[in-house]
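Appendix B. Raw example, untouched.
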Amino acid sequence: MQEAPRSVLVTGGNRGIGRAIAEAFLAQGDKVAVTTRSGGAPEGALDVRCDVTDPAAVDAAFAEIEAAHGPVEILVANAGITHDTLILRMSEDDWSSVIDTNLTGSFRLAKRAAKGMLRLKRGRIIFISSVVGLLGSAGQVNYAASKAGLVGLSRSLARELGSRSITANVVAPGFVETDMTAVLTDDQKQLIKAQVPLGRYAAATEVASAVTWLASDGAAYVTGAVIPVDGGLGMGH
């Protein structure tokens, strides 16, 4: 347990990895706000509606969270979408919507969170990327580019904000058991597992454990890092 509850924001925290992260911080006794477009935050979390592609909505969400929990001390930028297709079929909107949500949305969140963190002279910014951002994936040039971009964003913030005791890190999950992977066929799942040295998918709680560690006192000297939670799939990248 933390000595004092901290103000935590998890975007896209209504399902999958985001929900597991929000629940892990709640279990530690932190004050957790969850932003979604459609609602459905875990019990005990502040349920805030926010579209990260809308700068005004991001600002309004932070104002609501700050009024309820105080300045955001830990930001977990998790909200993300996919529009997968091969590049010759990929439309301008397929590209721009994924970049705007996954990468530019994370920029908007970090910029707004940094205002409060700079005043506090402390903070943790954690971006949820993907092994795909490091390995690449056919049919996902938009998603992979957006997730790779988070690494450059995080490392630049680590250099820019480090003197104020604000860390910026990336967690890069591999294949995780969520409702997004539940739609794969058994053959597809076996093919994926065969590529993973540990021979299984991750549980969402295993990704959450890496995130809560990065937000802990024990990770105070870790910044600009990419922490893979991928069963060895992307090692060396």
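End of appendix B.
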